[in-house]
Write a structure and sequence with these properties.
The chain has 407 residues and is of the alpha/beta class. The chain folds into two domains: 39-115 and 395-407, Pantoate--beta-alanine Ligase, Chain: A,domain 2, CATH 3.30.1300; 125-147 and 216-387, no CATH class. 17% of the residues lie in helices and 43% in strands. Strands 5-7-10-13-11-8 form a six-stranded parallel barrel. It has a five-stranded antiparallel sheet with strand order 1-2-3-4-34. β2 (79-85) and β3 form a beta hairpin. It is elongated, with a radius of gyration of 31 Å.
């Protein structure tokens, strides 16, 4: 009887010990899963942070080096991470990091959006109070808005709708489209002429409906221009003229206290907003373009002085669709911007004075307080410019709008 009780007690004790041991092992597994899962999550989060820092600083984020979209595997402590960086779509890119620690997986995704300024370039040419002067076979392929008079001579023409605000007048030239103007003189309008008076104009039909046209301001405010200048200055200040006549150089964001001259086949790559306190000259086959890191966003080179683009120089965006380079002058000297002799550029903007275009120069959009176009020069508006998003550089103007675990 005593032996029987002893055996029963031993069996019970063994069962209790086994149960306790099994529970301890289960807890150990649970703790191990928690620890490894935490490591996977920490690895994913740290990878996201690393990518964001690299994007902000304009550093490479792909392995092998290149521009997103891309994927790369990273060893982090005892874990590994697979990071996928998307291309820019609709002004945003996603960064997804899958952490793996001993087959415990945690995935984090960030939405990184452009915090940008979209000026709204709705017209091939938008002009302020100084008005428009066109001559000698010059043309604008796109809609036109002017707060001042519009003068066209010697086979000048526009394709699109022309709107002239207030009591502004239209004189001469051919408009393939409709025109809205207080007074029309000696112009050919292939569409509907909306005018209060006309003298010697031809048109498909005449009405005075939808008049007067209300003046509209230029799309960039002084505060926005000052903000871009501050962005440039925050990147550093160079005192003295910036001159390049050969080779390839990168610049930006940067403030140049002096003049800038890029010439003789030299190439300048803008990695951020550049502000020049003096004059800017781009000439003789020189090329200026945005860094590829801009992606589908746009950037600006700003001058307090005049800007001259000439002699087969080419200025362009990053190479991605929707990316444009804008030259912006704030000078009150006439002309603020001159482009001529087969120069090619995206956007010209003169906040206070005339933009002067001549001799076969070509561009996508012009905004200025005044505009002169002559000698076979053309403006060819590109659909999509109204949505062009401007940032201070590849790492500037971005903000994280979503950060969450997805698995």
């Amino acid at each position: 009887m005593g032996l029987y009780l002893t055996i029963v007690v031993l069996i019970l004790m063994l069962g209790i010990i086994t149960s306790i041991g099994f529970g301890v092992l289960t807890q150990q597994r649970i703790m191990q899963n928690i620890v490894q899962s935490a490591r996977a999550y920490a690895a994913a989060e740290s990878s996201i942070e690393d990518v964001l820092i690299r994007l902000v600083n304009g550093q490479n984020v792909c392995d092998p080096p290149g521009s997103p979209p891309c994927s790369s595997a990273l060893p982090i402590s005892s874990a590994s991470v697979n990071v996928t960086i998307s291309d820019i779509v609709a002004g945003a890119r996603t960064i997804t990091a899958e952490g793996d620690s001993l087959d415990r997986f945690r995935t984090v995704r960030v939405v990184y959006e452009i915090s940008s300024i979209t000026p709204g370039f709705f017209y091939g040419a938008q002009v302020g109070d100084l008005g428009i002067e066109m001559e000698n076979n010059s043309g604008i392929m796109g809609n036109v808005f002017s707060n001042g008079d519009f003068e066209m001579v010697n086979n000048a023409s526009t394709t699109g709708t022309v709107k002239i605000s207030g009591a502004g007048g239209l004189n001469g030239g051919k408009i393939t489209g409709d025109a809205y103007v207080d007074a029309c003189t000696s112009s050919v309008i292939t569409g509907i002429l909306h005018a209060n008076t006309q003298a010697g104009c031809s048109f498909a039909s005449l009405t005075n409906s939808d008049l007067p046209i209300v003046p509209i301001p230029l799309p960039l405010s002084a505060a926005t221009i000052d903000e871009w200048k501050n962005d440039a200055e925050a990147g550093g200040i160079t005192v003295g003229d910036y001159n390049r006549s050969s080779g390839s150089s990168s610049l930006g964001p940067q403030k140049i206290v002096g003049n800038m001259t890029i010439q003789n086949s030299a190439q300048l790559i803008l990695t951020g907003t550049v502000w020049v306190t003096g004059n800017v000259i781009i000439k003789n086959d020189a090329r200026v373009q945005l860094d590829s890191g801009y992606g589908s966003t746009s950037g600006a080179l700003i001058a307090n002085g005049s800007i001259t683009l000439e002699n087969n120089s080419i200025s362009s965006g990053s190479g991605a669709a929707g990316s444009y380079l804008m030259y912006l002058s704030t000078t009150s000297v006439d002309p603020a911007i001159t482009i001529k002799n087969n120069a090619i550029v995206d956007i010209l903007y003169a906040s206070n004075q005339f933009v002067q275009v001549e001799n076969n120069a070509a561009m996508r959009e012009i905004t200025g307080n005044g505009l002169r176009i002559k000698n076979n020069a053309t403006v060819t508006y590109e659909i999509g410019l109204q949505d062009a998003a401007f940032t201070s550089g590849p790492g500037g103007g971005w903000t994280v709008t979503s950060w969450k675990e997805i698995e």
